[in-house]
Design brief:
- The protein is of the alpha/beta class.
- The chain has 2 domains: 5-189, Vaccinia Virus protein VP39 (Rossmann fold); 193-262, Orthogonal Bundle (Helicase, Ruva Protein, domain 3).
- The protein is 38% helix and 18% strand.
- It has helices at residues 15-24, 42-48, 61-70, 88-95, 110-119, 133-139, 150-157, 191-194, 198-208, 216-222, 227-236, 250-262, and strands at 11-12, 32-36, 53-58, 76-80, 99-104, 124-132, 161-167, 172-173, 180-186.
- The strands form 2 sheets. It has a 7-stranded mixed β-sheet, with helices on both faces.
- Helix 3 links the parallel strand 3 (53-58) and strand 4 (76-80).
- Helix 1 crosses helix 2 (42-48) and helix 10 (216-222) crosses helix 11 (227-236).
- The longest helix is centred in the C-terminal third of the chain and has 13 residues, at 250-262.
- The protein is elongated and about 65 Å long.
């Protein structure tokens, strides 16, 4: 079944890869699993044999109709819907438990979907997601690497993310122009542990990474923090004056945020994430 380029459809045709993706979710015999973009149903079929129930969220009308014909509604609920509009909290409430999520994410809206999942963290348990390899590198990056940035911090603030395996273009129909990586994200928000306000801290992280070529101190000044207050907070947090944000762990960034917050130096500390 050919995909539609405008919808970012590249259907997985490797049954071994599909089996590995489903296995990475763990025991799902009592779980409700949300599948993002089931497409031709390669993963859906394996999920239906293992999960208590599947909610398949498919934007394409023709594919949604084909999935409804193929699978019993007792096992698979097919929703013709944009996943960015899907209510994870309501689905978790109806299921009576946190959801597991799986999906081959369309490349053109990968970041918005990851942010959507982060915002719905209270409703989620585990996500096993396939994304463009370069995006997975960013999501799972460690401090000090060239890929470490806002997306790394945002995802990892909501729980550990680990790469599982990478697939070549030939594993899909039609073959994309890039490799794809599957990663597992165990949802376990760290805000309370780190002593930070979620919206305020994420706003601060965006400011800290605003210009990756600049030092953290310069990014703070550009965000409106007075130079003396920025320097003092950096020193108290044990951060070198010329440090760049990409060299700092989430724990160190949280320590700096707490220092700046205590000093009243953060404008828009309660601003919601964009």
């Amino acid at each position: 079944m050919p995909g539609k380029p405008k919808l970012g459809q590249n259907f997985l045709r490797d049954p071994q890869a599909a089996a590995r993706i489903v296995a990475a979710l763990g025991d799902i015999s009592t779980s409700t699993v949300v599948e993002i973009g089931p497409g031709g149903g390669a993963i859906t079929e394996m999920l239906a044999a293992r999960a208590r129930h599947i909610i398949a969220v498919e934007l394409d009308r023709e594919l949604a109709a084909a999935l409804r014909k193929r699978f019993s509604p007792d096992r698979v609920t097919v929703l013709e819907q944009d996943v960015l509009q899907f209510d994870f909290a309501a689905a978790a409430a109806q299921a009576g438990a946190r959801l597991r999520v799986v999906g081959n994410l369309p490349y053109y809206i990968t970041s918005p979907i990851l942010l959507k999942l982060a915002a719905a963290h209270a409703a989620l348990d585990t996500a096993v997601l396939m994304v463009q390899r370069e995006v997975a590198d960013r999501v799972t990056a460690a401090p000090g690497s060239r890929d470490y940035g806002i997306l790394s911090v945002t995802v990892q603030l909501h729980g550990p993310a680990e790469p599982l395996f990478t697939l070549a273009p030939e594993s899909f129909s039609p073959p994309p122009e890039v490799h794809s990586t599957v990663f597992r994200w165990r949802i376990a928000p760290r805000f309370a542990e780190l002593g930070v306000n979620d919206a305020g801290f994420l706003h601060f992280v965006r400011q800290a990474f605003a210009q990756k070529r600049k030092t953290l101190a310069n990014n703070l000044r550009a965000a409106g923090v007075e130079p003396k207050m920025a320097s003092a907070a950096l020193e108290r947090a044990g951060i070198a004056p010329q440090a760049r944000t990409e060299s700092l762990s989430i724990e160190v960034l949280a320590a700096l945020w707490r220092e700046l917050q205590a000093a009243g130096a953060l404008a828009g500390a309660d601003a919601p994430p964009s």
